[in-house]
Amino acid sequence: MAGQGWVPMLTVWGRKTSSNVQALMWCIGELGLPYRRHDAGHRFGGTDTPEFLAMNPNGTVPVLRDGGSEPLWETGAILRYLAGRYGAAPFWPAESLARAHIDKWAEWAKINVTLGFTEPVFWRVVRTAPAKRDPAAIDRAVAALDRILAVAEAQLARSAFLAGEAFTLADIQLGHVLFRYFDIPIARPDRPALRRYYDTLAMRPAFREHVMVSYEELRVLD
Ligand SMILES: N[C@@H](CCC(=O)N[C@@H](CS)C(=O)NCC(=O)O)C(=O)O
């Protein structure tokens, strides 16, 4: 049992440039939790070793251990764990229905916006050599993403944050891709509520530290 003065120590495996690691680190920052982070994945490697695969058989980042806990993977599950263990209302309410309302938007953002942006758009624009880029495929992916972002736009025109008037876990799942969305050279239809929302997130210290991170090391040049 933890004695007085015991401080929980989170250990994260994952490189700063991973969008999923960014979501996790942003959440850790918002909750003000102590952590140590080991670079892993992409140029750092280390995700195909027996030791890493024993923690996460998928060989992906992030992985989290809380003190001596079993390793956790799947960013959505990790975020919910941290929010439940260390968070409180309104970020992650204990009451089931209030929490499900936030979770509904978090899940929506993860499976629609994140998955509609990262590989279909970001990879095609930044992680594909210029000569190999497919402008028509990029246009189609941006248009498909915008049909999803129209839902966020309508919601954010009604409320300050994705799940209402308070900053919640749902904002982590939507917001962590918006730095890249607004930064890369793609056609962006006018979405004033989304832009206002992004500008608000960009004032949060934890967002600036963990999400507004250069992605230059991911760029594929040829
Ligand atoms: N569904 C997983 C996806 C994890 C994932 O695909 N992570 C990427 C980084 S965002 C990864 O490990 N890429 C390989 C690498 O970095 O070497 C999650 O949400 O955590």
From TrEMBL:
The UniProt GO MF terms for this protein read: transferase activity
Taking every annotated instance into account, which residue ranges of this chain make up the domain GST C-terminal? 95-222
> Which Pfam family, any one, appears in the UniProt record?
GST_C_2
Q: Cite the GST N-terminal domain residue spans from the record.
A: 8-90
Record's keyword annotation contains Transferase: yes
Keyword list, A-Z: Transferase
Protein family membership: Belongs to the GST superfamily.
Q: What is this protein called?
A: Glutathione S-transferase
Originating organism? Neoroseomonas lacus
